[in-house]
Amino acid sequence: MSGANNQQQLADLLTRIATGDRLAFRAFYAATAPLLYAYALRLRVSGALAEDVVQDTYLRIWRYARGYDAARGASPTTWAIQILRNRAVDLRVAQGPATTPLDDDTAADAMVGFNTGNAMSERLTACFNNLGGRYRQVL
Hints:
- The protein is mainly α.
- It has helices spanning 3-17, 22-42, 47-64, 76-95, 104-113, 119-130, 133-138.
- Helix 1 (3-17) packs across helix 2 (22-42) and helix 2 packs antiparallel against helix 5 (104-113).
- The longest helix has 21 residues, at 22-42.
């Protein structure tokens, strides 16, 4: 399955989520949770707080799925990551700086640990593993 097909499937799931379809929500969660959790860790959010940020992100996805508009150019994955990023920043500001620094390999290990085996997560893991230090730090 190509990335475009995967993003189209995720967009279709968001459309169904907007109507209250719980099965679509479960499918969206299964397809995106590993990526969102790894991204939360890369934002230097500690383990328990990362789980809270991801949970809050999915709550917002459930509530605001009708606000997703593919015509604006953002893929469903990018849209979900932006929600997560905003929540992580809000929570980190409220909590203060992280007390446990995250080394460069921790988030990559988390992504591998949550890998669902789908083609997109495999490609993302491979790309992430090929990044140099400064680029990994940015992500």
